[in-house]
Amino acid sequence: LCGTKSGIALLYNEETNNTYDVCLKLTKEVLTIQKLDVVCTSGSESQVNVHLLRTAGDEVTITVRYLREVPSFLKLPLGSPGPSTDHSRVSSPLFDSGLHLNGNGNNTAPSPPSPSANEPKYEKRWLDAVSLPLLMARVSRYKAGTDKLRSNCFEVFALDGVSTNILQFCTAAESTDWLQAISTNINDLTQENIVHMGWACESSEGSTAGRTAAFKFLALRGPYFYIFRSPPISAADWGQAETTYNLYEVLFKVHKLWMAEDCWLQARLYLGLEHSPEQQDNESLCFSILVGHGQSHTFGVELATDLAIWEKSFQRAVFLEVQRIRSKSYMCSSQGNVLCFTIDFGLGFTCSEGTSKTILWRYKFSQLKGSSDDGKTRVKLLFKNAESKQIEMKELEFANLTAVLHCIHSFIAAKVASMDPLYMCSQSFPGNYMNS
Question: Where are the stretches annotated Disordered (predicted)?
Answer without folding.
Answer: 101-120
